[in-house]
Amino acid sequence: MNLASPFSISLVAITALAFLGLPIGHAMIAGSVLYLLLAGLDMGTVAEQILNGMYVNYVILAVPLFILAAELMNIGSMSERLLRFCDAFVGRFRGGLAHVNILQSIIFAGMSGSAIADAAGTGRMIQLMMTKDGKYTASFAAALTAVTSVVGPIIPPSIPMIVYALVSDASIGYLFLGGVVPGLLMALAQMALVAAIARRRNFPVEPPIPLRRLPGITWRAFPVLMMPVVLLGGIYSGVTTPTEAAAVAAAYALLISAVFYRSVSLADLYRSVLVSARTSASIGMLLAGALVFNYVITVENIPASVQALLTGFDLSPLGFLILVNILLLLLGCVLEGTTILLVIVPVLIPTAQALGIDMVHFGVVVVVNIMLGLVTPPYGLLLFIMTRIAEVPLKALVLDVMPFLYVMFAALAAITFFPDLVLWLPRLMGYQG
Q1: Is the per-residue pLDDT at 406 higher than 90?
Q2: Which of these, 400, 412, 414, 406, lies nearest to 146 by C-alpha position?
Q3: Per residue in 43-84, pLDDT tens?
Q4: 69, 73, 154, 343: which sits with the fewest CB atoms below 10 Å from its CB?
Q5: What are phi and psi for residue 341, nearest 5 degrees?
């Protein structure tokens, strides 16, 4: 690469601006404008790419709607009722509250599509439950909440999968289906590890809830448990698109919290809308920056160059997937997941297609890698969130996270080597890939 070329200079500018503290979306826009200026191209292309990308892609609208749905669930009593339901069924085992943490993440995964929403919402409550009376150390409880939260965006719905569909043209519906088995596999791996740790550390056993109380607890949690059914049922019955389903999810969460449970005030509603708007705006700027920078990458013909380079290594499809896993896991240590999805993954997609790798399988592998990046030191966004929630040192948290990372890496290897773990359910529903 010519270090004095417009592309090289724009990369240096983006990196420098990001290190100086400018949000990465703004940095990509600034670097792209600089590239167009140095290359003698029309700088008005920046606005054109943003407008075409943001306003033509209807699927982008699903992102703020799912964020709003998650916020509405967190301000009401939906999360609390969900935890009580999970406690009634798995709390009686050794390390019961740890299993409750995992089970609630599986169920919550069918509602929000966001790992951060899971950690910041039910994560706060389960942290208090686990550390009360010194039952579990604060660092273990925080570590478990962090790693269980990554299951959320793997089991549908999933905001990262929506973003992947945007850059790959893969079917969102089949991507959602493809994430079910890998998400459950990862949760089962976490449960198995918790069971082993519980025996070794002699974790407490919660008092079993009498069977006569189970119907009442289930009934009170029933509206919450119906949310994934309403959401996914609408998508796979053909009644709603994924974007429309996101709107239904937000409306359903508001209806249940405000009308059925009567646990939301106008002040709570205002705060949830404000938080959702801020989060959506930050993601929107990142999308805008990526759209412009991807135009630069296309002009420079970077995907074709990468494809030619990798073809020269004569990689098999499996070899390419292993290389992608290593690359994304390393990048996940230092980069935010959405940036990887929007900037790095589009460069890899042409090579994956040329090797005959299924785009749904590739998408799920990519999303799992990015989710693992949320709990991989040193960057791990969820690690920083949980250190603030639990008020524990990062070092102690990382030590408790590492065993879970090992079993999740094993689950990632399984879905990489055995594509049918991802594609079985989509094919059952008519996918021809």
Answers
A1: yes
A2: 400
A3: 787 777 776 766 666 677 777 887 787 777 777 677 777 777
A4: 343
A5: -60, -40
CA atoms within 13 Å, Cβ hemisphere of 296: 31
Residue partners of 233: CB distance under 8 A and separation at least 6? 239
Q: Which residues pair with 205 in a beta bridge?
A: 94
Instruction: Give alpha helix (H) positions in 169-213.
Output: 172-178, 180-201
Token pair 């943490």: residue: 101
DSSP β-bridge partners for residue 94: 205
Average pLDDT over residues 306-324: 82
Here the tokens at position 322 are 């292993």
Give the pLDDT band of residue 122 (cuts 50, 70, 90).
Answer: low
User: Cis omega before residue 207 (within 30°)?
Assistant: no
- What's the burial of 10, exposed, middle or buried (CB within 10 Å: 0-12/13-18/19+)? buried
Backbone angles phi, psi at 295, to 5 degrees: -65, -40
116 within 8 A of 382, measured Cβ to Cβ: yes
Task: For residue 398, give both structure tokens.
Answer: 């990382």
What is the C-alpha to C-alpha distance for residues 205 and 175, in angstroms, rounded to an integer? Answer: 38
The continuous run of DSSP H or E covering 114 comes out as: none
The answer to whether 291 and 57 have CB atoms below 8 angstroms apart is no
Q: Which helix (H) or strand (E) holds 8?
A: helix 6-19
56, amino acid identity: V
